[in-house]
Amino acid sequence: MARRHPNPKDHEIEDGYQRYAAEGCDVALGIGGGSVIDAAKGAALLAADGGRIHDYEGIDKMAGPDPPMVMMPSTSGTGADVSQFCIVTDTVRLTKITIMGRVLVPDVSVIDPRLLLTMPEWLNAAPPRRPQRLGDGAVVFGRRPRTDDGEVPCREPDAQDDGLPARRGRLRRDETGAALAGAARPADPKATIGISSVVAVMERTRRAALSIVEHPAFQPAVIAVIVLNAITLGLETSGTIAAAAGGLLRFVDHATLAIFILDIGLRLAAYGRRFCRDPWNVFDFVVVAIALVPASGPFAVLRSLRVLRALRLVSAVPSMRRVIGGLFAAVPGMLSITALLALVLYVAGVMGTSLFGTVSPTHFGDLGSTLFTLFQTMTGESWPDIAREVMEVVPLAWIFFVVYILISSFMVLNLFIAVVVSAMESQIMAEARAEEAEHAAEEQIANREILAELRELRAELAALRGNVPTS
């Protein structure tokens, strides 16, 4: 896998893994600088655990040991050949992600100082620069040859290897071969090719599902099906329409349910373990799962829950998701206002029972009746009739009712609206900041690539100047 960019990008690593799986390889060899070595690590990680490279952002997100990794660094000082880090450029979010884990430490690091002999001294001391001899470097995948007894042969070094330590003999899989293999692998090439073929088919299926799910026409089509299903469920409640076109309505209902199941299946295949990280995906899955419960016997009541499928419109329309997100963000503030309203209601209830308990026992006879009457008054339901009944005996009772309504209805309830609006504004501002950060990250990556190219041009110019004979 030839490298042409200064930073390993996510799609380049996934393309390398595709070639790794298609060829039935079981060893990853990285020759080049830190970016090339990171690309080899990423491809080996996908070969071991599958999925997408973004799934492993963070610390120890990988499950098992990677295939054997042999690294040959051609720069002095990057440390990527012995580290447990892998830096990848996320081309979607336009930022760099860090993957960390002990399994990312290469099995073998081949340090050959001869790779650095053609580099200028000042460039040799600057790890970020590219070497002049190997260019952009390369990631090589291969299958290890084995003898009949399961041994991995090792080349006999030549006598003129510049005095480098010679390692004679063969690496046995049950002894020092563990340093190269890292973990046991199937010795049968057919078994390796079979497993790799299955992995390759699964990855092609995931990519095909992802291309469908992320197609611009996919989401509008799902929204149209949700609206059609909601209309169908409403028409089924009419006895006349159900009698005239009941068969057609049932067919449309079953067809839309099948489309919903296909939608969930495609997203599961496309996103894998990331499917459950989105709460809206979980919501859609639960709604569709409820519709699959048999609507007979003790589960007949669940038939009425089919209408919940119409709520999928909330998860499908971004503006509705934004509103729901604002409501959830406003929950902490709304809880505080609810506590304040309950306190006001309780204080007014105690006062009302003490003042008007003997005047209107029906409405203020005890604390429970008073609280219900005050809640009814807060909503504006029939409160004038209640107030006039009390005012016939206590003329100044209007002061109590007016003050209570001003506090509970005009002040406290309006605070709910203020909190929700504030949460919506905060969410919109957060989205705007995220977009600005995305554009800034894109510009930063572009600037870094330009600077990297400039450094390479300077290094080539310096190398050419060093090779020009002085008169």
TrEMBL record:
Q: Locations of Basic and acidic residues compositional bias?
A: 145-158
Q: Assign the protein's first listed, main location to one coarse class.
A: membrane
**Any single GO CC term annotated in Swiss-Prot or TrEMBL for this entry:** voltage-gated sodium channel complex
Transmembrane annotation, as ranges: 217-235, 247-270, 282-302, 323-348, 398-423
- What start-end ranges are recorded for coiled-coil regions in this protein? 434-467
Where does it live in the cell?
A: Membrane
Q: Where is the Ion transport domain?
A: 216-426
Its name, as the record gives it, is: Ion transport domain-containing protein
Ordered alphabetically, the record's keywords are: Coiled coil, Membrane, Oxidoreductase, Transmembrane, Transmembrane helix
Q: How does it sit in the membrane?
A: Multi-pass membrane protein
